[in-house]
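Quick log. Single chain, no ligands specified.
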Amino acid sequence: MAIITISRLTGSGGREIATATAAALKFQFIDRGAMDNVIGQQFPVRIEQLSRIKKDRRVYDEMVRSAIAEVASIYNVVILGIGAQFLFERVSASLHVQIVAPLLYRIARVMRVAKVDRPAAEKIIEERDREKEAFITTLYAKDWRDPAHYDLVLNIDHFSNDVAVEIIVKAAQAKGIEATAVELPAQLREEILTAKLDVAQLADLEPAEDKLPEFAHPSEREFARVMDFYRIRWEYEPKTFPIEWDENRNVVKAFTPDFYLPDLDLFIELTTMKQSLVTKKNRKVRLLRELYPDVNIKILYEKDYKNLIWKYGLGNGEET
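-> predicted structure:
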């Protein structure tokens, strides 16, 4: 998959160039107006829940960033604005483009497109560029105008839109990003996971109380809640395994893992306990693996649990 980000000064015609580039390459086009649709692809939230989440700007911004990142890891995309050049700055399969133009060019274009006089056009340019600056500064603490952040800077006063699109397409082909798999940096993967957990909590997506079993520990209820949020089927303590017998072959010790994920054929044992109890759990898991080699089981600490959600909930994690 490939990522092309296009940033532009207001009035430079960057939107037209971005949409034409996406069409020429047959890439998916993403801009701020497409956010609700992109979010809907990645977050199973209802309209009323999304409206509530939008009131918390921090969580909503995180949700936007994680949704964009996930879409970009699956599809070839051209992303207009939204600070994507900084979100994907360490992704090798990406091309970052900035569209610029002299102020007089931009004023004249805004006057023509928006059908306003010069003072109104100048005000539009000033306000929109200031909004972009505030957005980028808040999320990334970067100067979005700095050409050092881009692979390619095009002064549209020197090219037609068609030529600009041709240059971007050839730059993408020369960089070979279409043939390079997108690998999201570990920090970005962690940020995406954090955003999903924040959204799950803020959206108050709880399993129906009458359908919940009696959990032995609050962490188990949290695990079930997140599994439900990501639509991963689970069973609570569905099977007990004998692990020790006396001399008469009577079972003296048994082990019941906390969860079973049938779609993954995976047993999960959670632990947030003190070290002495964790050691006992580790011993039980080790015995179970020795006695039942065909049984797939993992014991998860908090960080391991998050990695599991990334791998099976988001689809791009690495082995714990």
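The longest helix spans residues 118-140.
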